[in-house]
Amino acid sequence: MSTPALEAPVDATPRRLPPRAAFALVVALVMTFLAASSAPSPLYALYREAWGFSALVLTVIFSSYAFALLAALLVFGALSDHLGRRTVILAALVLEVGAIVLFWQADSVGWLIAARVLQGVATGMATSVMSATLLDLDPARGALFNGLSPMIGMAVGALGASALVQFAPQPMHLVYEVLLGALLLQAVLALGLPETVTPRPGAWASMVPRAHVPAAARALVLRLLPLNTAGWALGGFYLSLGPTLARLVTGRATPLAGGLLIATLVLTGAAAICVVRQRPARRVLRTSAALLAAGLAITLLGVHLQQALLFFGGTVVAGAGFGASFNAAVRSLVPVATPHERAGLMSSFFVLSYLAFSVPAILAGLAVGAFGLHHTALGYGGVLGALAVLAWVTARERT
């Protein structure tokens, strides 16, 4: 007896948001999800002081989020192509609210890991469907905001959380209370999102874990891999061990230093996206590889000399390379997928991105115990710089 296909619920809401308002709401949702994902980073020092865990445990907490996100991308990445975008967005919001409640009540490492895992599932479910929804509503602006919104969201989460840690009472609760209020409001508004695809059978089959890369996109995805890996691995290091490294380089134990480091990386990435969004994607890929390699070299010099100006200056350059490369990659991928392939393709692209985001960070956490943070940062950055140079050479040969 065959398994029945999941059915999308009957549309019972009489009024839907107009396309421009729907686009703005989905952008805001992406920003909130990514703000929630980066908000715990400035709090890790407080958690370590309260519960006494190592750098390795810290990276395990961080990576539990990334691996749960990967699993969700593989299982739910193409689900919205079958159930419809709005249904999956609402499901992701319910899970994210549950994760924030767990963070709010956390009193041990076990609670943190549980919250991070649930948050990873929610964010993974949301990432592909919101990316596809933005492209459905407005392909040109969707490609822009698919890169811009996560960058701004991560910056807001890191800076906002670090400011609350430094200046507000009970930051380990207040951060999550603010996020919870934003998510609940957006969940109510999301009930009015228009549906942008026609639901179709095959939902159960779509949840069998696999990569959903159309044949026409496979060669391109492989070409993008070295540069994409370098950029996301840098982001993973900054969100896990970056605040600790910032305190080491600057000699200051203020939480705001770590939040500022993360915000510097992602906000310069967002600015670069705005600059390059209408330039030829292939040329941007080559330029961004050079920027990422140069930025890493300057950053590593700052780490070695413990010079904050070089450290943050290099982060600005590397962040520009990261943001520009991400935007160019998304713009390169959009034309090679049909509307019903977009969610699957974007989920596969994010699977590769979050593998780069998580696995190297775990290895870095292991290396810190053996070699110390200073030497680990130098070695880690050197490998990423080599990948960026490889991407630059490859892009140059193809031009």
UniProtKB/TrEMBL annotation:
Record's signal peptide: none
Coiled coil (UniProt feature): none
GO cellular component: plasma membrane
Subcellular location, principal: membrane
InterPro entries, per database record: MFS (IPR011701), MFS_dom (IPR020846), MFS_trans_sf (IPR036259), MFS_Transporters (IPR050171)
A molecular function (GO) term: transmembrane transporter activity
Sequence ranges assigned to domain Major facilitator superfamily (MFS) profile in this UniProt record: 21-399
Pfam families in UniProt: MFS_1
Transmembrane segments: 21-39, 51-76, 88-106, 112-135, 147-168, 174-193, 220-241, 253-276, 283-303, 309-330, 351-371, 377-395
Topology versus the membrane: Multi-pass membrane protein
Keywords carried by this UniProt record: Cell membrane, Membrane, Transmembrane, Transmembrane helix, Transport
Protein known as: MFS transporter
